[in-house]
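lol forgot to send this yesterday, sorry. struct tokens for the thing we talked abt
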């Protein structure tokens, strides 16, 4: 059974097909064809352990636009807290185990979407992606990653936005900068992991710009990016030099994240992070680029991560990228539904 957990699990033909389907859904909606029937009579359970604006709205509306139905569950809020450890004596907060939750939801719904950010205490545990893996282990229907320690739906939306902007599916050779930006809190590395993964997969010349070696991403994702670059003909380098990284860039993608060596010790990281407020994306930096397009996954704190001028510039495609979430997720849900049909 196919899940949609990471784009690395997809071969290039599957990845390209999802992007092509998403582009078709977007054209159809623009032409006034609002409804499809790919999910007619089907449903998706959307399990949110963390807040969301875009992901929740776009999955719910996307399912509706394909004739399906979405139900949202928030464990610990409007659904029972869940235990993920095996063999544990459940005398804490959790009222039920993932072994029952995933199996029960599989009897109701045709797919399960999961959003589960790290707990931000111990990276060696969080990097196991246990919540998503738990759903995938026990569910008997496809599971969709709605952001855990990667964000593959955002990857597809970002890739489609870049293809639209450059007017071509072939992004090879574009100079791509993933820049760390300041944020007052330590944030998830998921979108950064994903940006490196997809940008190298698509053959771009990728620079990870971060303030210090502590902000380099987990070796699993650096390794994926290195392998992708080797296979696609792209490249990957790490830079701590703002001017050199921005120089001649075609794409600037911004994200903030917490430094992994300080994971769970955020008071100790704060004095380091607070030195790097100047990593904000502003007009001065963008002027160094090759008229680069700018994007961010959103939500974004204006004048902390990027200035008003950058966000309001015609070269900012963050809203297009957010719009694309609707269409790439329809493509993912339609693909998984079609796979299930083939299986019978
Ligand atoms: N980009 C993104 O996933 O947005 P939300 O957190 O609002 O869902």
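and heres what i got for the seq, position by position
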């Amino acid at each position: 059974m196919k899940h949609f957990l990471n784009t690395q699990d997809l071969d290039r033909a599957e990845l390209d097909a999802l992007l092509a389907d998403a582009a078709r859904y977007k054209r159809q909606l623009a032409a006034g064809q609002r409804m499809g029937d790919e999910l007619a009579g089907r449903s998706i359970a959307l399990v949110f352990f963390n807040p969301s604006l875009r992901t929740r709205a776009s999955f719910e509306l996307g399912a509706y636009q394909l004739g399906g139905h979405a139900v949202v569950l928030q464990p610990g809020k409007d659904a029972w807290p869940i235990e993920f450890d095996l063999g544990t004596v459940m005398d804490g907060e959790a009222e039920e185990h993932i072994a029952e939750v995933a199996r029960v939801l599989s009897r109701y719904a045709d797919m399960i979407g999961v959003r589960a950010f790290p707990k931000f205490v111990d990276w060696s545990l969080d990097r196991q992606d246990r919540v998503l893996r738990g759903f995938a282990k026990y569910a008997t229907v496809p599971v969709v990653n709605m952001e855990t320690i990667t964000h593959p739906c955002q990857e597809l939306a970002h890739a489609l936005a870049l293809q639209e902007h450059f007017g071509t599916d072939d992004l090879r050779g574009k100079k791509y900068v993933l820049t760390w930006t300041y944020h007052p809190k330590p944030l998830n590395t998921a979108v950064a992991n994903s940006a490196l993964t997809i940008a190298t997969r698509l053959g771009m010349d990728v620079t990870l710009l971060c303030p210090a070696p502590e902000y380099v991403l987990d070796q699993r994702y650096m390794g994926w990016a290195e392998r992708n670059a080797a296979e696609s003909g792209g490249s990957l380098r790490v830079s701590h030099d703002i001017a050199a990284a921005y120089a001649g860039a075609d794409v600037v993608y911004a994200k903030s994240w917490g430094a992994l060596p300080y994971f769970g010790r955020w008071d100790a990281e704060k004095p380091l992070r607070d030195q790097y407020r100047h990593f904000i994306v502003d007009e001065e930096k963008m002027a160094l680029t090759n008229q680069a397009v700018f994007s961010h996954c959103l939500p974004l704190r204006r004048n902390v991560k990027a200035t008003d001028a950058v966000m309001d510039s015609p070269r900012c495609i963050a809203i297009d990228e957010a719009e694309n979430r609707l269409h790439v997720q329809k493509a993912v849900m339609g693909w998984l539904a079609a796979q299930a049909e083939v299986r019978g």
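The longest strand covers residues 43-48. anyway ping me if u want another try
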